[in-house]
Recover the amino acids of this structure.
C-alpha cells in the first residue's frame, strides 16, 4: 500500500508531515510518497540527520496552495501544487490514498474536480470522527455543503454508515439525524423530509436508522455511531463542540491555578489526566475523511504535528482496506431518489 | 411590581416554583401572583409550615398544560390552565411579567396567541443567555422558529441587541451572526442575505454588528454580546453546548475517581470549584426571555428548583424595568424590509 502525503500542507509543513510520514513508514510498514518542494523536504531530512528510507519517495511539486488562493479553483490553476499533483496521483492509481493538511475548501473542490465523485453521488461530504459518550461517531456532512437537498443527506447517511462499519468496525452502525427534537415532526421542512427518507431506508433494512438525535445526548453512553446533518448544521455542531470544550478546559485551568491548595491538587491528578486529554485530542483520530469521491482522501487538521500525521496514515490504511467506495457503488440504487435522479 | 408565576409548570411543580416565589418576594421585595391549583399550592405552604405573606396572592386555575398536549393549541383549548390564565393576566396588565417552567412550545404559541406580537415583529424568538469566554451572550433565536427568513433574523439581531443593552447592561453590545466561516461570503444563501442586512444596520449605526462568528470562538475572552441565528441552528448550538459540557464534566468525574491519589487531589480542589460550577450552571442565569411579544414572558428550565425560580424572578424584574418592548416599538422602522413588508 502506498499513501501519498502533501508535504507542503498545514501550519507545520514541511517538517511535521515529513516526520509523521517517516514514523508511519517505520511503524506501519506502508510505502509513502511525499509530494512537495523536493529541496524543502530534503532540508527537513538533513536537519533531522535522516536518510530517505526505502519505500519512501519524493515527488517534486513546485507550487504550494496558499491560504489566500481561491479554494474553488486553486487545484486547477496551480497544476504543479503539491495538492494538485497528489490528487492526480491518487486518481491515476499511483497511490492508494491522499492526505493533506492544507486548505479544506481547496482540498474538497480539488478532490471533486480531479478525483471526481462516484457516479450517482450528488455531493462529496466531510466526515470527521467526533468524541461521544459511547466513544466516537462519524459526523457527516461536517461542512462541505452549506446548502443541501434531502437526497444529498440520504446519501450522507449511507456513506457515514458504511464508513462507521468498515473503517471504525461498528457492527450494524446506529444512524441518527441531528435535529432539535426527537419526534419525526421536529425541525425544518428539509429535516422532516430527510427523516422520512431515512425511516424508509431503515424500514427496508438498508441502514440502522434510530431516529432524530438532539446534540444534548452526545454525552450519553448509548450515543449513535453516525450523526447525519446538512453541511451548515454539521459544521456548527463541530465548531460548537470545539468552542465549548476550549471554554471548559480554560475554566478548569483557572480553577487549578486558584491557590496553592488547588495547585497541589492538580499535581496529584495530573499524572492520570492522559485519558481525559486523549478524549479531547483531535490528533488522536487522525484526519477527516472525504466521502463520495472515487479514492480515499483525508484532510488532516491544519495544525497537525508528526503524531497527527502518523495517525492520519493509520486511518488512511484502514480507509483503503475497507473498500468504502466499492460499498457505495454497490448500494447506489438505494441512495438515489428516482424523481430527483430523473431531473439531473 | 407584580411577577406572575405558573405554579404548575416544570418537573418540580408546584413545590419549587412556590418556594422560589416566596424567597423572591422576601429578598427582592416584589409582589408575586401564583397561578395554579389553589389546593396544591396551599398544600406546599402547609408542608413547609408557611403562611402566605402579604404581597403574594394565589389565582386559582383548575387545568394544567401536560407534556402530551398539542403545544400549538393547548393554551386556547385549556382556557383555565395555569399557563393560559397567567398569559391573559400579563396581557391585561394584571401583572408585569409571566414566568413558566412548563412546555416551551406551549408557552411560545400561547404567548404569541394571547399576549400577541408587537406590531411589525414577524416572529417572537427565544433568547437564552449562554456562557462564553467573555462572561455571557444572548443567543437569539434559540429554537422558536425552525424556518426563518432574513427579515426575521434582522429583527432577532435588533431585539437581542436591545436585551443585551437594557437587561444585561452591555454598552453598545457587539452583535455577531453565527456562521461556518468569518468571511461575508460564508454559509447558506439565507446567511449571506442576513449578513448583508446586518452589515447595513451596522453601517447605519443602529446596531454594533461585528460580522460572522464561528462557534469555535465561544471560549474567546472577546466573544460577542449577541449571537444571531435561525431557530434551528440556534437550538443546535444551545444543545451542542449542553451535550459537550455534560460529556466533559463526566470525563472529569471519571478522572477524579481514578485512584486514591486523584481522589485526594479532587478533595483539595473541591472547595474552590464554585466559580467553575457556576460557569456551567443554567440555574444561575434565570430563564429564557421571549422577545417580540407585548409583555415580558420568561421560560424557566423544565427542571428548575426554587433557586432557579428565584433567579428567574430577578431576571423578570430587570426585564420589566428595562422597557425592551418600548425600545423595539420605537425602532420598528429599521427592523422591517420594505419590499417584504409590502407583501404582508
Amino acid at each position: 500500500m502506498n499513501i501519498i502525503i502533501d508535504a507542503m500542507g498545514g501550519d507545520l509543513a514541511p517538517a511535521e508531515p515529513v516526520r509523521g510520514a517517516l514514523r508511519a513508514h517505520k511503524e506501519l510498514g506502508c510505502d509513502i510518497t511525499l509530494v512537495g518542494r523536493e529541496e524543502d523536504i530534503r532540508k527537513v531530512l538533513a536537519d533531522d540527520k535522516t536518510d530517505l528510507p526505502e519505500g519512501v519517495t519524493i515527488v517534486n511539486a513546485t507550487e504550494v496552495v496558499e491560504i489566500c488562493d481561491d479554494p474553488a479553483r486553486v487545484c486547477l490553476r496551480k497544476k504543479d501544487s503539491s495538492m494538485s499533483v497528489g490528487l492526480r496521483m491518487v486518481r491515476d492509481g499511483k497511490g492508494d490514498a491522499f492526505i493533506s493538511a492544507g486548505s479544506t475548501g481547496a482540498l474538497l473542490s480539488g478532490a471533486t474536480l480531479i478525483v471526481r465523485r462516484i457516479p450517482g453521488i450528488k455531493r462529496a461530504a466531510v466526515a470527521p470522527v467526533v468524541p461521544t459518550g459511547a466513544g466516537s461517531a462519524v459526523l457527516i456532512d461536517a461542512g462541505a455543503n452549506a446548502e443541501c437537498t434531502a437526497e444529498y443527506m440520504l446519501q450522507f447517511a449511507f456513506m457515514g454508515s458504511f464508513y462507521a462499519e468498515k473503517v471504525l468496525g461498528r457492527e450494524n452502525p446506529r444512524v441518527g439525524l441531528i435535529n432539535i427534537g426527537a419526534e419525526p415532526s421536529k425541525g425544518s421542512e428539509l429535516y422532516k423530509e430527510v427523516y422520512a427518507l431515512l425511516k424508509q431506508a431503515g424500514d427496508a433494512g438498508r441502514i440502522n436508522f434510530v431516529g432524530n438525535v438532539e446534540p444534548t445526548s452526545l454525552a450519553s453512553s448509548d450515543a449513535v455511531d453516525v450523526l447525519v446533518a446538512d453541511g451548515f448544521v454539521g459544521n456548527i455542531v463541530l465548531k460548537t463542540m470545539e468552542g465549548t470544550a476550549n471554554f471548559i478546559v480554560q475554566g478548569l485551568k483557572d480553577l487549578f491555578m486558584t491557590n496553592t491548595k488547588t495547585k497541589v491538587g492538580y499535581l496529584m491528578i495530573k499524572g492520570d489526566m492522559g485519558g481525559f486529554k486523549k478524549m479531547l485530542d483531535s490528533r488522536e483520530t487522525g484526519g477527516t475523511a472525504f466521502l463520495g469521491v472515487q479514492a480515499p482522501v483525508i484532510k488532516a487538521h491544519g495544525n497537525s504535528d508528526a503524531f497527527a500525521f502518523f495517525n492520519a496514515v493509520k486511518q488512511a490504511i484502514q480507509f483503503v482496506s475497507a473498500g468504502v467506495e466499492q460499498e457505495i457503488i454497490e448500494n447506489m440504487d438505494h441512495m438515489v431518489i428516482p424523481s430527483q435522479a430523473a431531473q439531473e
Observations:
- The mean pLDDT of chain A is 93.
